């Protein structure tokens, strides 16, 4: 259980923060940037939920919880030590990726195939979901970059990759099952 009695600690005043294993690193380190961007994705999902209801809101709530799991995963760099610690860290699981895939497939069945790229927008929910998509893509790029120099759970990267796809398809669903998608017209303003 997490207990936060005091919100500010002053331990980061010199530009460092603690990872999940207790190690102190610069706040601009690749790992902190990666899980900080996951937090940013979560905040955009919170905005999208202001416009969602029913099953979409429930799915977004699950994603928000997953994103906290993902942040917890990314803040623990010592994956090779997972089996040796008294309390193994929380890691993303393939089942979370598979759930996203199943939800994408279910939503996609209601959609006509795309014949053009679409512009972010349409309904308020769709616009917010496209923002979620772009921030999750950035988060994925940062996690992939981090994985080139430090250990990163492969399921975490897969989750981020599927998540942006989920937001894309959900955005189309939010636009009257794609009927109100805003289509890109190449060179329209030349």
Automatic annotation (TrEMBL):
InterPro entries: CblAdoTrfase-like, CblAdoTrfase-like_sf, PduO-typ. It catalyses: 2 cob(II)yrinate a,c diamide + reduced [electron-transfer flavoprotein] + 2 ATP = 2 adenosylcob(III)yrinate a,c-diamide + 2 triphosphate + oxidized [electron-transfer flavoprotein] + 3 H(+); 2 cob(II)alamin + reduced [electron-transfer flavoprotein] + 2 ATP = 2 adenosylcob(III)alamin + 2 triphosphate + oxidized [electron-transfer flavoprotein] + 3 H(+). The keyword Cytoplasm does not apply. GO terms for molecular function: corrinoid adenosyltransferase activity. Its EC number is 2.5.1.17. Pathway: Cofactor biosynthesis; adenosylcobalamin biosynthesis; adenosylcobalamin from cob(II)yrinate a,c-diamide: step 2/7. It is an enzyme of class 2 (transferase). Residues 7-173 form the Cobalamin adenosyltransferase-like domain. Keywords: ATP-binding, Cobalamin biosynthesis, Nucleotide-binding, Transferase. It holds the Pfam family Cob_adeno_trans. Belongs to the Cob(I)alamin adenosyltransferase family. This is Corrinoid adenosyltransferase. It comes from Roseovarius phycicola.
């Amino acid at each position: 259980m997490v207990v936060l009695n005091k919100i500010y600690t002053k331990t980061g005043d010199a530009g460092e923060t603690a990872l999940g294993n207790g190690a102190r690193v610069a706040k601009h380190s690749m790992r902190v940037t990666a899980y900080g961007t996951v937090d940013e994705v979560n905040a955009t999902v919170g905005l999208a939920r202001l416009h969602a209801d029913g099953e979409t809101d429930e799915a977004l709530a699950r994603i928000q919880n997953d994103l906290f799991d993902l942040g917890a995963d990314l803040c623990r760099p010592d994956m090779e030590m997972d089996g040796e610690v008294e309390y193994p860290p929380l890691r993303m699981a393939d089942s979370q990726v598979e759930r996203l895939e199943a939800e994408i497939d279910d939503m996609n069945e209601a959609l006509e195939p795309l014949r053009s790229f679409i512009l972010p927008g349409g309904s308020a929910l769709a616009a917010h979901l496209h923002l979620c998509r772009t921030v999750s893509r950035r988060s994925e790029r940062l996690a992939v970059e981090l994985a080139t120099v430090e250990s990163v759970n492969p399921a975490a990267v897969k989750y981020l990759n599927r998540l942006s796809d989920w937001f894309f398809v959900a955005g189309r669903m939010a636009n009257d099952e794609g009927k109100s998608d805003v289509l890109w017209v190449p060179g329209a303003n030349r």
